[in-house]
Amino acid sequence: MINIVTVCGAGVGSSMMLRLFAQQILDAEGIEATVDASDIGSVDPSAYDLIITTSDFADALRDASTPIIRIDNMMDKAFLKEQILQAIAEIGR
């Protein structure tokens, strides 16, 4: 099972929307994963296999060894799907 976290400033806005979209994509693809939402101040990147966030927060997490998907147009589900599937394929290598 893959552990994914979506991150935003407070953990209740964009991270919740990204969590929902990511879970829908994963469910549609039949990929077992846990998707959590977190705020930037309390997220532990090492506890996850993949981080999904905007560029601003990705810059704050740049020292993390966990792969980060940067998404700035949260309504672009096709881009999010492409990035999630690519990242999962690379994690599996």
Automatic annotation (TrEMBL):
<feature type="domain" description="PTS EIIB type-2">
    <location>
        <begin position="2"/>
        <end position="92"/>
    </location>
</feature>
<dbReference type="InterPro" id="IPR013011">
    <property type="entry name" value="PTS_EIIB_2"/>
</dbReference>
<dbReference type="GO" id="GO:0008982">
    <property type="term" value="F:protein-N(PI)-phosphohistidine-sugar phosphotransferase activity"/>
</dbReference>
<dbReference type="GO" id="GO:0009401">
    <property type="term" value="P:phosphoenolpyruvate-dependent sugar phosphotransferase system"/>
</dbReference>
<dbReference type="InterPro" id="IPR036095">
    <property type="entry name" value="PTS_EIIB-like_sf"/>
</dbReference>
<keyword id="KW-0762">Sugar transport</keyword>
<protein>
    <submittedName>
        <fullName>PTS sugar transporter subunit IIB</fullName>
    </submittedName>
</protein>
<dbReference type="Pfam" id="PF02302">
    <property type="entry name" value="PTS_IIB"/>
</dbReference>
<keyword id="KW-0808">Transferase</keyword>
<dbReference type="InterPro" id="IPR003501">
    <property type="entry name" value="PTS_EIIB_2/3"/>
</dbReference>
<keyword id="KW-0813">Transport</keyword>
